[in-house]
Amino acid sequence: MVANAHQIDFRDVEPAEWTHCETATQAAQTAFPVLPADELSSYFELNDVNSVALGVRLSPDTEVEALADRLDQIALIEVDFPAYTDGRGYSQARVLREHMGFQGELRAVGDVLIDQLRFMKRCGFDVAVLADHVDPDDAEAALKRYGVWYQPAADDRPPAHRLRRFVQNWEI
Amino acid sequence: MYQYDNFDKQAVRERAADFRDQVERRIAGKLSEDEFKPLRLQNGLYLQLHAYMLRVAIPYGLLSAKQMRKLAHIARTYDKDYGHFTTRQNIQYNWIKLVDAPDILDELASVEMHAIQTSGNCIRNISSAQFAGVAADEVEDPRPWCELIRQWSTFHPEFAFLPRKFKIAVNASPADRVGVKLHDIGITITRNAAGERRFEVYAGGGQGRTPMIGKLMRDDIEAHHLLSYLEAILRVYNRYGRRDNKYKARIKILVHETGEDKFREEVDAEWRKIEGGPVDADIAEFGRIADYFTAPAYDTEAQVDAHKARAAMDPAFAAWVRHNTLAHKVPGYKAVTISLKPHDGIAGDATSDQMDAVADLSENFGFGEIRVTHAQNLVLPDVRDADLPALYDALFAQGLGTANQGLLTDMIVCPGLDYCALANARSIPVSQKIAKRFDDMDRLQDIGEVKLKISGCINACGHHHAGHIGILGVDRKGTENYQILLGGSAEEDTSLAKILGRGFDEDGTVDAIETIIDVYKAQRQDGENFLATYRRIGAEPFKEAVYGG
Ligand code: SF4
């Protein structure tokens, strides 16, 4: 993990000392490795594995469906946003959560800026690791600003039209 | 029309507050211009050649009198006293100061308006037919569906950073008034053989530098599956649309490169996982929305053809009624198009005073409702025949009485090099020269329906591919040059216009248009309009006349 990186927790997660590993063999000897997705099959072929829990790092073009067989053995998935304008990670997150039932920790990393956080939260991320130069106080403030959503997504927030049915004379 | 409840009000206020914060962070140097750019774009703020331009959303082109007055006030207070209505039924202000933008968003929020998602790589304002709810040929009013889609697409958490912008249009009559097959997604609401509501969904149409006609994805989507089907298309596009090249990033390229059938299968596979799920569960919301679109209290005694006496003695008025009014579903009423194409003006522009005047007229001669059309005109949808003379006189006094709806001078014209940083050539002067050349109502009426559309560059904001006659500005060795295209249509018989031959300078273009019109007049048969003649005789006779044998 990058030291001092500020992270925003959308939900409480078990803290762990995750370490980025480049190769499967390196990961097998690490307690909490985070491995690139394309190293995953080699990792599962190794016999001598001493990891406590496994993390996987996706790139935007990773086919998340390919993780299906191993999903229950993955504790953490890092979804990389190499540029914040690249929105593929939002779909990856929703597919993992809603189609594949991934229950582990989902973490947004990379070019994570303030104005993406509210979308990440709704797409099922647990944690967003802010880009270095982002002020965490500004991030928290911006995140609090939005209360109204119009569509269901991967979080459990009810969209406005569902609330409307219960709140007739709702005042702000 | 739709009225915001407290949820909607909170949403636009939150957004305005958020944007104020973003502007402050930008001014404080906490956001770089690169980081700020997509944020301001998602709030409709572009940097043009000379200043910021703010594009305000007019959902499916529908405005109340109160909202129109606010638009006039903004033009007067923060801009140069005018606004520009666009082909996406929005309004643009061309001379906005960054520091004023948050105040303008607050002003807009006070009348249930905003600039959300009017630019940027997200789902844009939903467009629809300008005669929705009043046209006699409609199977139902498309606007409640537009509103449902507007809400679903607003702040959609998954689709805020698509490969490219995404435009959806909804039509509900056999006559295509929205360009269904020229949108990223085009929807036609129909009835199946059993009389049940079905949605035809087209995907992958678009103009721009690679124009393509949309492909029919499915014609059997039911109401309670509409949103899941849209979500499935968007998810496939978000995951697999090209991001390596901005000019290949629209969904039309994905559909084209994947292949229509395979793309449909991929969408179906995704759709099967989500159909009937949470996104579809809220279809009950549709009933709440539809209640806002019930018909107004029409005068059941409205006298049919009450304007005929004036028409009989005033040919100019008669011409205006003929061209600028449309039969209404209620007898004794007409839908009136207010032309924003005076022959000495700029297509789509309206002054603050004109906007205020239109707001007043919408209340005096209707139910306080105004529509913006994709042809950059305005519509008063509910005018009694008996009121047409008074309305005409009032419009005429405001310079809004031009009787050219659907005629050659009712051009669609993009802002071009006068404003736009991407332009190769100016669009406005050439449009004005054409209007001047044909500034004779008798002649225009004799020529009849011609859709002339002008873009200042290959990005095609002026829809030149879809014009009966299209004009495309190009940069030829540093000078402005114009190519002419013929044979396009954005209606139910959608076709893409083809380039006639080498381009011309401004005056040469005007001459060539006149020559083309002369060929049509010489060749037309039995009431054919320009497009019908072109389709019958082909490009050759036009080429010969324009370029010589
Ligand atoms: S067509 Fe080109 S010149 Fe015209 S508005 Fe679009 S980008 Fe600008």
Gist of the model:
The complex is a heterodimer of chains A (172) and B (549). Chain A has 172 residues and is α/β, with parallel strands linked by helices.
Task: Tell me what you see in this structure.
- The complex is a heterodimer of chains A (172) and B (549).
- With 172 residues, chain A is of the alpha/beta class.
- Chain A has one domain: TIM Barrel, CATH 3.20.20.
- A 7-stranded mixed β-sheet of chain A has the order 1-7-6-5-4-3-2.
- In chain A, strand 6, helix 4 and strand 7 form a beta-alpha-beta unit.
- Chain A is globular.
- The relative contact order of chain A is 0.14.
- Chain B is an alpha+beta fold.
- Chain B folds into 4 domains: 104 residues, Sulfite Reductase Hemoprotein, domain 2; 165 residues, Sulfite Reductase Hemoprotein, domain 1, CATH 3.30.413.10; 90 residues, Sulfite Reductase Hemoprotein, domain 2; 136 residues, Sulfite Reductase Hemoprotein, domain 1, CATH 3.30.413.10.
- Chain B is built from 19 helices and 20 strands.
- In chain B, the strands form 4 sheets. In chain B, strands 1-2-5-4-13 form a 5-stranded antiparallel β-sheet. In chain B, strands 3-14-15-12-11 form a 5-stranded antiparallel β-sheet. A 5-stranded mixed β-sheet of chain B has the order 6-7-8-9-10.
- In chain B, a hairpin with a 2-residue loop joins strand 18 and strand 19.
- The mean pLDDT of chain B is 95.
- The site of iron/sulfur cluster has 13 residues of chain B, from loops.
- Tally of helical runs of chain B: 19
Tell me the distance between the termini of chain A: 41 Å
Largest sheet of chain B: 5 strands, antiparallel
Helix content of chain B: 25-40%
pLDDT below 50 for ≥5 consecutive residues: which ranges of chain B?
none
Principal-axis shape of chain A:
globular
Radius of gyration of chain B: 23 Å
Strand segment count of chain A: 7
Count of separate structural domains of chain A: 1
Which strand order does the major sheet of chain B show? Answer: 1-2-5-4-13
Task: Using the coordinates above, name the CATH class of the largest domain in chain B.
Answer: Alpha Beta
CATH architecture annotation of chain A: Alpha-Beta Barrel
Q: Round the Cα radius of gyration of chain A to an integer and report it.
A: 17 Å
Bound molecules: iron/sulfur cluster
- Low-pLDDT residue intervals, each spanning 5 or more residues of chain A: none
Mean pLDDT across the residues of chain B is 95
